[in-house]
Automatic annotation (TrEMBL):
Keyword Signal carried by entry: yes
Signal peptide: 1-25
Official protein name in the record: Fimbrial chaperone protein
UniProtKB keywords: Signal
Cross-referenced SUPFAM superfamilies: PapD-like
Organism: Sphingopyxis panaciterrulae
Amino acid sequence: MLKSKFSVFAALAMLMSLFSVAAHAAMTVQPVILDLKMAGRDMGGQIRVQNTGTTPLPVEIRLVEAELLPDTVKASDRPTDDLIALPTQAIIPPGATQAFRIQYIGDPEVDHSRHYYAEVAQLPVEIPGGQSTIQILYNFQAMVNVASITAGAPDLSVESAEIVRPDQPAGAAPDAPPPPARIAFTVHNAGRNYGYLSSGSLTLVQRDAAGKEMFRRTLGDSDVQQMIGFGLVGPETSRKFIAPIDLESPDGTAEVILSGRGR
């Protein structure tokens, strides 16, 4: 038995000697949302990347179009020529911060806002000595929204609201009780420029079958941003949100009141 255990430990030690994990490099990216305009002094802005690790950090900026879906916003795999990044690549020393300028160079007369992502991708490094290595590569995304100078202000309104039960989390036991009910609502933007849900306040109301109020809560702009996010709603589109507030009962009807201009 002793010999068997020794053989296992020896095999593990040999395996670890064959693979060295690269020294951790980590980064922070600010801001996570960049608001630009198609013309004028606000056509460009900066994204700052800080190397919080202990080794030099090689990074590259990749610019892609955003996809505005009915219930989320995400990066596509389509590169864009409407933006440029200066520089496109950099090696950031430990503890240092590199500023990347993101500039809109697309059509200045488009009559609706456009939306992109700046992906800050850590590049792999070559390890000297021919060692095999496992590298942990970081990839952050900053959203870039470009407002049209001719489209006017956004126009956000609540289209509908309902009480829903979120899906069971992955790995939940078969006999686990259902998740608490929450209020879901859809916001429509009738304007041709994007708007933010977090630029106004939200009032959530639940009533029973007789119309009696069972629940009411108002979220200010900072509460909305913290609990739901910025809540981007693209031009002439609708987006569904779920307020992360548990209700005591799944019964009745819901109403959501939006106050504020949206941007």
